[in-house]
């Protein structure tokens, strides 16, 4: 069972993606970003491109490393194991809770006495009114806990032999159930699901922005190769320190 996208063996498209990214970044710094003809525009564009390129690299590593596996069965076993063990008394925690609850009760009494608002009463307070509370210490009942999953929300995967959530799907490539399964991305060598969908979405936006910047810069440099022939030849010799034909630079821009 694959846990994340960096687990071997790596997919060939994953290696190709890293190689293409490296070539695009190298070409931008070596041939595109420094031949716009305006020093201010070059510095500004290089800074923006650098930030976007770093974001792409970070999000790619992060999205590939996230484990989107449905861990419902593991959580239930862990919860059951905790309930079976004999709890140890933490006197420091108990004392702190007593103090905190005391101040909460005092605050509630003060609020009910001096401010006549029904929604401040935790018994009558609705869920929609909770964000409107102006006092950070007015909270829900101390005994309130998050509800457990209903049995209707639990399904069983015969391939994993585990209990999973109803909207989870089994990925045959990774041999696991993924919560909120969207698709298996070969470029990441990982599944895209609920746990890493936001990171994947941000990665796609960053990649698109990076390609727009590089594509627009390539078009601008390509036009300048023919609109400003003498200036481009002098700038190529001054910045690259070799006789570099502008036709080759134009070809790199097209590629």
UniProtKB/TrEMBL annotation:
<keyword id="KW-1133">Transmembrane helix</keyword>
<feature type="domain" description="Palmitoyltransferase DHHC">
    <location>
        <begin position="152"/>
        <end position="229"/>
    </location>
</feature>
<keyword id="KW-0472">Membrane</keyword>
<dbReference type="GO" id="GO:0005783">
    <property type="term" value="C:endoplasmic reticulum"/>
</dbReference>
<dbReference type="InterPro" id="IPR001594">
    <property type="entry name" value="Palmitoyltrfase_DHHC"/>
</dbReference>
<dbReference type="InterPro" id="IPR039859">
    <property type="entry name" value="PFA4/ZDH16/20/ERF2-like"/>
</dbReference>
<dbReference type="GO" id="GO:0006612">
    <property type="term" value="P:protein targeting to membrane"/>
</dbReference>
<keyword id="KW-0808">Transferase</keyword>
<comment type="similarity">
    <text>Belongs to the DHHC palmitoyltransferase family.</text>
</comment>
<dbReference type="GO" id="GO:0005794">
    <property type="term" value="C:Golgi apparatus"/>
</dbReference>
<protein>
    <recommendedName>
        <fullName>S-acyltransferase</fullName>
        <ecNumber>2.3.1.225</ecNumber>
    </recommendedName>
</protein>
<feature type="transmembrane region" description="Helical">
    <location>
        <begin position="12"/>
        <end position="37"/>
    </location>
</feature>
<keyword id="KW-0012">Acyltransferase</keyword>
<dbReference type="Pfam" id="PF01529">
    <property type="entry name" value="DHHC"/>
</dbReference>
<keyword id="KW-0812">Transmembrane</keyword>
<dbReference type="GO" id="GO:0019706">
    <property type="term" value="F:protein-cysteine S-palmitoyltransferase activity"/>
</dbReference>
<feature type="transmembrane region" description="Helical">
    <location>
        <begin position="200"/>
        <end position="227"/>
    </location>
</feature>
<feature type="transmembrane region" description="Helical">
    <location>
        <begin position="43"/>
        <end position="65"/>
    </location>
</feature>
């Amino acid at each position: 069972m694959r846990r994340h996208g960096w687990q071997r063996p790596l997919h060939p498209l994953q290696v190709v993606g890293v190689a293409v990214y490296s070539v695009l970044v190298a070409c931008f710094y070596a041939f595109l970003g420094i031949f716009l003809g305006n020093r201010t525009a070059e510095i500004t564009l290089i800074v923006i491109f650098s930030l976007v390129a770093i974001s792409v690299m970070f999000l790619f590593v992060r999205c590939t490393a996230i484990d989107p596996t449905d861990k419902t069965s593991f959580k239930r076993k862990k919860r059951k194991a905790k309930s079976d063990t004999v709890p140890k008394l933490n006197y420091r925690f108990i004392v702190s809770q007593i103090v905190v609850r005391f101040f909460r009760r005092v605050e509630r009494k003060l609020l009910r006495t001096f401010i006549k608002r029904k929604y401040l009463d935790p018994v009558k307070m609705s869920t929609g009114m909770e964000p409107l509370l102006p006092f950070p210490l007015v909270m829900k009942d101390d005994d309130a806990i998050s509800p457990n999953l209903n049995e209707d929300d639990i399904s069983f995967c015969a391939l994993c032999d585990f209990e999973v959530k109803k909207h989870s799907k089994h990925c045959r490539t990774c041999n696991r159930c993924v919560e909120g399964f969207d698709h298996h991305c070969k470029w990441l060598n990982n599944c895209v699901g609920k746990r890493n969908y936001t990171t994947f979405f941000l990665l796609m936006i960053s990649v698109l922005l990076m390609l727009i910047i590089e594509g627009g810069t390539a078009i601008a440099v390509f036009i300048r190769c023919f609109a400003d022939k003498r200036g481009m030849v002098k700038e190529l010799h001054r910045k690259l320190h070799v006789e570099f034909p502008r036709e080759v630079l134009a070809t790199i821009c097209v590629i």
